[in-house]
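Dear colleagues,

As part of the handover before I leave the project, I'm documenting each prediction I ran so the next person doesn't have to rerun anything. This entry is a single chain, and its sequence is reproduced below.
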Amino acid sequence: NNIEISANDQMKSSTTELRVKANEKVTLTSTTAGTQPKEAMGHNFVLLKDGTDLAAFAQTAIQAPDHIPANNPAIIAHTKLLGPGESDTIEFTLPAGSYTYICSFPGHYLTTTGVLTAE
């Protein structure tokens, strides 16, 4: 369950669909493939619980440090905010189900998003 994903200056993820085995450790590496500075076009990977109100979550993320709301119960796992060429690796385990992932940089959740399915 090793996954690599990236996001670019066009606010798109390298994939909108990820599949993993349920209840097995996932190692995910996220990379920013763009060239714009982190302050203008940073990216992260935020995995959210099913049923999360994305617009409401994104609103709370705007003012949060690195756009990750601290202690937010909707967050399952997340990388740090990444600038050009930077990457971050995280590990998590999921029960079977479908989960939405987004970039929580302001405005990105609409286009830098996808679904991770654990089966």
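The two ends are 12 Å apart (CA to CA). DSSP finds two helices and eight strands in the chain.

All the best with the project,
I.
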